[in-house]
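Work Package 3 (structural annotation) set out to generate three-dimensional models for the target panel prioritized at the project kickoff. During this period the team completed the workflow that converts sequence records into discrete structure tokens, so that structures can be stored uniformly alongside our sequence database. As a representative example, we reproduce one entry of 136 residues exactly as it appears in the project archive.
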Amino acid sequence: MKITSGILITGILLLFVSFNKVSEFKLERKILGKWSFFSEMNEKGAWKKVEKLDPNKSGMEFKKDGILIVQMNSGSCATPPISYDNYDGIWKKTSDSTLVISHGFWGGKLESNILIKTLNNKKLVFEILNDKIIKN
């Protein structure tokens, strides 16, 4: 009985350690590039990697050294047709799966803490944990 328990505990520990290794990703390397908003089965915060941002869609470009360009609606009204503009910003890694992004928008400055749920060469999915708007 003790041997079986020992093997079971060792197996669980090895599984836990290997899961942590698999779930870690090189955030700084993988997030770089252009991302265009898309919704897949009503998935919130889903973005696909693109070569070029569509001027008629929301998008983001994560650059080296924490530089961020956000493409979003240029006014408070989201009734079509929607006009888009690019806003300068910054991004900073706060853990292996969280970022703080800060950028301008039509009403001032927006700072968001985000939790990355999926990040690979084609897809980025995140959840906004909290937002802070700084008015002009």
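DSSP finds two helices and eight strands in the chain.
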